[in-house]
What we know:
Layout: H1 2-23, E1 24-30, H2 36-47, E2 52-58, E3 63-69, H3 75-84
Antiparallel strand pairs: 1-3, 2-3
Amino acid sequence: MKVVSIVIAMFLVMGANAQKASKTQVVSIQTNGTCQSCKEKIERGLAFEKGVKDVVYDLATAIVKVTYNADKTNVENLRKEINKLGFAADGQKPENATECHSKKEEKHSCKEGDGHKH
């Protein structure tokens, strides 16, 4: 009887963990930040969005990968947050273009028309 109880308990725990895992999703969003300052602003800004578990922005591809809990947020909310930060998100224009603060960087890669101000 003890063995059966232990096996049932294990299946219940595994089932609960599987449900939690299925709520976690990953999305890739194209944006327009092109320097280290932009990367940090996007990663820090999205990290505080409800439900966000992880944020990684790749400067080379201008793609931000966000791991999030689908019960707490969705892709549209993530895009809106990127727009609020001053960046484009999957073609959606930002509310206000962000001020790029990396003029001090020797290898500054922001260009005119990137959607943010210098």
